[in-house]
From TrEMBL:
Protein name: Uncharacterized protein
Keyword line: Membrane, Transmembrane, Transmembrane helix
Transmembrane segments: 24-41
Top-rank lineage group of the source organism: Bacteria
Lineage of source species: Bacteria, Bacillati, Actinomycetota, Actinomycetes, Kitasatosporales
One Pfam entry name: MmpB
Amino acid sequence: MLWSDPENEPPQEMRDMQAMMRRAGILLALAMIIAMFVVGLH
């Protein structure tokens, strides 16, 4: 499977996993920011 293949469409479960990882990364970043605020307030 080369990158130059014309039909380089990832399977549905891989796209779902990528979307879930992206969402998890955003949630983790938000949680870190909130934790920084909480630690800064105390």
